[in-house]
Each structure stands twice: as C-alpha cells, then as structure tokens.
Write a structure and sequence with these properties.
The protein is mainly alpha-helical and about 425 residues long. Among the domains are: about 190 residues, Bacterial muramidase (Helicase, Ruva Protein, domain 3, Orthogonal Bundle), CATH 1.10.8.350; about 55 residues, no CATH class. About 45% of the residues lie in helices and about 5% in strands. The protein is built from 17 helices and six strands. A hairpin with an 8-residue loop joins β5 and β6. α4 runs parallel beside α14, α6 packs across α7 and α7 crosses α14. The radius of gyration is 23 Å and the shape is globular.
C-alpha cells in the first residue's frame, strides 16, 4: 500500500512520477509553433506577460553562470542556438518556487477528508457536464488506448479542475530555478533539457509553456520528460498541445495510462466485503492473486455481488482495519504511476465511477480517527526503531518500511496488522 497520510502542497508530489530514463529522445527542428494553443473547453489561465512578483529577480552572477553550463550541455544534446535564445533570453529566477519546493506541511489529511473534496458532489456534477462537452474526444481516446472516458475526465478534474487551474508559471523559469537552487539539480536539469526539446520540436512556444511551480504542464500536468514519452498529436495539427487541444490532452493521458499497465478488459477495482476472520495482514501490496482466488477465500463485492475479473489483485485498506476495503488490480496501479499516492489513485477511480453514475464508497470511514502530523509520525517511526521494529529513517513520510514496522509491532501486541498509523498506536508505543 502506498502513502495515504501526507498530502504536500499541490504539485509538490509531481517529482517521482516516471523515471527520466523513460523519456523518449526527440530529434527536433528549430521552428516555433505557428499559432497559440487552441482554446480549451474550460477557461484557461491567462499567460503572464510581466513578472508575477517583485521578488522574482535573477541572482547574479551565480544564476547566469549556472545557465551557461546548461546551455553548453544543451548544445551537446543537439539544442539549437535559436531555441536556447528563445528559452533563456528572458529567464527569471523565482524565489517563490524555491519556497514551495522546500515547504514541508506539518498537518496531514486523512483519506476520507481528501476524498470528500476530490469526489465532492460539485466536482461530480461539473465533471459529468464536462464529459458531455468533450465526449467525442474522450471516446476517441478510449477507443484508441482502451482507457475509459470517465477515467480520463476524472484525471483532468483532479489535475486542473477540468482545465480551469493548471498553473501560470513559465516552465522554463520554474525548472531553471529548481536546478540552480540545487536540492534537485540533476532532476531539474533533466527536465529542463526535455522542455528545451519540446520547444525545439515546435509543440508549444515559451510563452504558452506554463504550469505548476514544480514543472508539471498543461491540463493533465505532464512533466516535460513525460510529455516527450507520452504526449500525442490526436487532432493532427502537427503539434502535441496539452494546453489547448482537448483531443491531445485526453489522448496523451490515455497513452500514459495504457503504457503504464492499464488493462482494457479490467476495471480499476471495486469496493469489497471481507469475510469473518480474514487475516488483515494479507491486505498488502505484496499479496496479489486473481479476483477468483480472493472470491474463493470469501471476499465479496458489496451486497454480495460477484467480483469483477481482475488479475494480480490486492486487498487495500486505505483507512486501516476499521475502514472500507477495496480490491484493486493492474489498472489501479497504472494510476499510481501517474501519481504515487493511494488517495490520489482512489480519488481518480471513485470520481470516474461517479461520473459514470456508479456508487460512491458504501462502507463508513472511521472519521473519529485523527491523522498523525508529520512530527507525530517521526516520533512513531523513531519509537518503532527503538523497539526493534525497523521502519526506516524517521522522516515523517509513510512508506513500505514504516508500514511493515507498524505491522510487526501490531502483531507483537495482538492487534490487527493493518499497518495503519494512529494516535492510539503512537500512545501505545510511548507507554513504558
């Protein structure tokens, strides 16, 4: 099971999406787009023509020297002088990007609080309306790549509120800032080179290459490396436009999921009922088998319904033993490739289900449980390590090592081994 506890500021979690090695190398030309992106269905943020803030001043001479090194590397990779001038002649250092990158929120959200917002009635209603508006493009992408239209529109809704908020920060400026700052220099330089290839290929011009502070771009928030690897020119205009062309937005997103393991003949999963006496410790990403095998153990759909066909399916308890249970398969894991957060992937899946007039979550969430703060989780990790239940380096982030350490401790004191961090568990660990 993946991280369900910590939710950084929007777009901070875009860094670990897909390894840079997956980015396809493109040999581009130096031509610029012949026109600006075509208008999307939803309102598009205004492209900034002046610096958004007075704090955005390039630190000299360090930033300029760093850019000289980037230019040299880019030239060696085949980037033309025309592209380098277009990208860097007006480049700005953005201190607010550094501030957001370094921000580590102390307070975290429970999965049910997250889903209350992600799958709110308003978002469902708006998404159903947007799905009607983009039905032709969504169905075309679904037919070509085998990913349901409802899933594509759900990702669109989660990533940019159906195109109304995908960021207005110039991608070149954001990545140059992150690279110069140094904490993620290798990653940022790689993404910056990918962004230069996009400019050189003529898919977009610099002024319209905008997105989040973390470098994610367009209506479904592709990193530049992911753009190179997965973006599609579905409308046939010679450009891959994930900013203004809904055909390109939806086809690119579908291509990403299809090449990340989406199974056209299988749904993302389903909410399930676990049989009496079920070993909660088997609700783990490392325990996978077919839905038929889970059914043989007594796992059933809600109201006793038969399970859908799923291969390599795992039982997932995003809120621990007291919360709802889900059976998820390879298609769900392809959404995790888009954003490696269980709550995000569950949000996309449930939003898509609601957009298709399916049910929401039926079992109650344990809303009386309080999410641990980052500091509390560090204390819990430290206490687990001290007692011999290895949970990795205390960092305030849930991961496989911490979850396994919690499971081992829970088993040692006779609790259901669901791996869920709670205030009660922390208090037990702090009791001599």
């Amino acid at each position: 099971m993946h991280d369900i506890i910590s939710f950084p500021a929007r777009r901070a979690w875009r860094f670990p999406l897909v390894p840079l090695a997956l980015a396809a190398a493109l040999a581009g030309c130096a031509s610029a787009p012949s026109k600006a992106p075509s208008p999307p269905v939803a309102s598009t943020p205004t492209v900034p023509t002046t610096p958004p803030g007075t704090d955005e001043v390039a630190p000299e001479p360090g930033f300029a020297r760093w850019l000289d090194g980037v230019r040299a590397s880019a030239r060696a990779a085949g980037i033309s002088e025309a592209t380098l001038h277009a990208a860097f002649d007006g480049v700005r250092f953005l201190p607010r990007v550094v501030e957001q990158d370094r921000a580590q929120p102390e307070f975290t959200r429970s999965v049910w609080d997250y889903l209350d917002s992600a799958v709110s009635p308003q978002r469902v209603m708006r998404g159903q309306d947007r799905l009607l508006q983009v039905r032709a493009d969504a169905d075309a992408a679904a037919t070509r790549y085998g990913v349901p239209a409802s899933i594509l529109v759900a990702i669109w809704g989660m990533e940019s509120n159906y195109g109304s908020n995908y960021g207005d920060i110039p991608t070149i400026d954001a990545l140059a800032t992150l690279g110069f700052e140094g904490r993620r220099e290798d990653w940022a330089r790689g993404q910056l080179l990918a962004a230069l290839k996009i400019l050189q290929n003529g898919d977009i011009d610099r002024a319209h290459m905008i997105g989040s502070w973390a470098g994610a771009m367009g209506q479904t928030q592709f990193l530049p490396s992911n753009f190179l690897a997965y973006a599609v020119d579905a409308d046939g205009d010679g450009r891959r436009d994930i900013w203004g062309s809904m055909a390109d937005v939806l086809a690119s997103t579908a291509n990403f999921l299809a090449r990340s393991g989406w199974q056209a003949d299988q749904p993302w999963g389903t909410e399930v009922q676990l049989p009496p006496g079920f070993d909660i410790g088997r609700a783990d990403a490392g325990v996978r088998q077919s839905a038929a095998q889970w059914a043989a153990e007594g796992v059933r759909g809600m109201d006793g319904a038969a399970l859908p066909v799923l291969t390599d399916a795992e039982v997932m308890l995003p809120a621990g033993a007291r919360g709802p249970a889900f059976l998820v398969g390879p298609s769900f894991r392809s959404i995790l490739r888009y954003n490696n957060s269980t709550s995000y992937a569950l949000g996309v899946s449930l939003l898509a289900q609601r957009l298709a007039n399916g049910p929401g979550v039926q079992a109650p969430w344990p809303r009386d449980l309080q999410a641990l703060t980052r500091s509390q989780l560090i204390t819990l990790q430290t206490a687990l390590n001290q007692r011999g239940f290895a949970s990795g380096t205390p960092d305030g982030m849930m991961g496989p090592a911490t979850r396994n350490g919690i499971r081992l401790y829970q088993r040692s004191i006779g609790l259901p081994a669901d791996g869920y961090p709670s205030v009660d568990l922390l208090q037990r660990l702090q009791t001599p």
